[in-house]
Design goal:
Layout (H helix, E strand, L loop, with lengths): L9 E12 L2 E7 L14 E5 L7 H6 L13 E10 L4 E7 L6 H7 L6 E5 L13 E6 L4 H10 L6 E7 L15 E7 L9 H7 L8 E8 H14 L7 E7 L5 H12 L1
Parallel strand pairs: 7-8, 7-10, 8-9, 10-11
Antiparallel strand pairs: 1-2, 1-6, 2-5, 3-4, 3-6, 4-5
InterPro entries: FAD-bd_FR_type, FNR_nucleotide-bd, Riboflavin_synthase-like_b-brl, SIP_FAD-bd, SIP_fam, SIP_rossman_dom
Organism: Roseibium litorale
Family: Belongs to the SIP oxidoreductase family.
C-alpha cells in the first residue's frame, strides 16, 4: 500500500509567546503557509524542528525548501496542535516548561515575536467520534494540550471524568471549555523527574460507570502502562474506544523513548 504524501514542512514565525501558568508556555505561530492548513486539527500531533543557535531564518528555511529533508540538521520534537484560527491564520502550541534542557523547552522559553521553526504534520486527531455514555480523560502536563483539545471537541452534554496531573496548584488551566458533565480533578505532583501512580490510584478509588466508555489518556509511559492495564484488561474498554499513549519516559529524551516504543511493538 502506498503511503500518503506528507505535506511539506511549514516555516512558521512567532506572533506571541506567554506563560499560561508557571510551567506552561503558549506560543502562537503564524505564516503564509498556514493559509491551506486544514481546519479541525486540534488535538493532532505534529513534529516541530527548531533552529540551531545563531541560525537565520533564510538559511533555516532553505533546508526545508524541497520537503522533509533526509538529513536531520535540527532537533525535532513532537507536540500537539492546541488551537487553530483559520481567519488569521494562526496556531497555538503549548510547551511544558519544567527546567529541562530539551530543545523545545529552551526554544519556547526564549521565543519572541519573529522567532521561527518548521512545522511538520499534522498527524491524525486522537478523538474523532463521541458516542460514549461516559468519557475518561487522564493526562500529565505533557499531554494537557491533547486532553484539553479532546474535551473541547466533546458534545456539550458529555459526562465523564478528567484527571490532570500538574506540577503546582498554579498550573490549573482555567481557559479549557469543559462540558458541565465532565468532573475535573487536578492532582499536584511537584517533581516531573519521577514516575508517579497518583492517576491510577485515583481511578481505582472511584466507582466505574455503566455503559460505553471512551478514553483520551496520555503522559509518562510508566504511569500510562498501569492505566492501560486497568482500562483495557480490568474494565474491558474496547481498543477502538481507547486512545492511550505514552508520550515520554522518565530518564529518556524523545528519540530514546520513540526507539523504546518501536522495540516494544516490534
Amino acid at each position: 500500500m502506498q503511503r500518503p504524501v506528507r505535506p511539506a514542512p511549514r516555516i512558521l514565525t512567532v506572533k506571541s509567546a506567554r506563560y499560561l501558568t508557571p510551567h506552561m508556555i503558549r506560543v502562537t505561530l503564524t505564516g503564509d503557509s498556514l493559509s491551506d492548513f486544514p481546519p479541525g486539527q486540534e488535538g493532532a500531533h505534529c513534529k516541530l524542528a527548531f533552529p540551531r543557535a545563531g541560525e537565520d531564518k533564510d538559511g533555516f528555511a532553505s533546508h526545508y525548501a524541497e520537503g522533509r529533508p533526509k538529513e536531520r540538521l535540527h532537533p525535532v520534537r513532537t507536540y500537539t496542535v492546541r488551537a487553530f484560527r483559520q481567519a488569521e491564520p494562526e496556531m497555538d502550541i503549548d510547551f511544558v516548561a519544567h527546567g529541562d534542557s530539551g530543545p523545545g523547552t529552551l526554544w519556547a522559553q526564549n521565543a519572541v515575536e519573529g522567532s521561527f521553526l518548521a512545522f511538520m504534520g499534522p498527524g491524525p486527531v486522537k478523538m474523532t467520534h463521541f458516542q460514549a455514555d461516559w468519557y475518561l480523560v487522564a493526562a500529565d502536563m505533557s499531554a494537557l494540550p491533547v486532553a484539553a483539545a479532546s474535551i473541547e471537541a466533546m458534545p456539550r452534554n458529555a459526562k465523564g471524568l478528567a484527571i490532570f496531573e500538574i506540577l503546582s496548584e498554579e498550573d490549573k488551566q482555567t481557559d479549557i471549555r469543559i462540558p458541565e458533565g465532565i468532573e475535573v480533578h487536578w492532582l499536584v505532583q511537584p517533581d516531573p523527574h519521577v514516575a508517579t501512580s497518583v492517576q491510577i490510584d485515583f481511578l481505582r478509588s472511584i466507582p466505574w460507570p455503566e455503559g460505553r466508555v471512551q478514553t483520551c489518556i496520555a503522559g509518562e509511559s510508566s504511569a500510562i502502562r498501569s492505566i492501560r492495564e486497568y482500562v483495557l484488561k480490568e474494565k474491558g474498554v474496547g481498543k477502538a474506544d481507547a486512545y492511550i499513549s505514552g508520550y515520554w519516559k522518565v530518564g529518556l529524551v524523545e528519540d530514546q523513548h520513540q526507539e523504546m516504543k518501536r522495540l516494544e511493538t516490534a
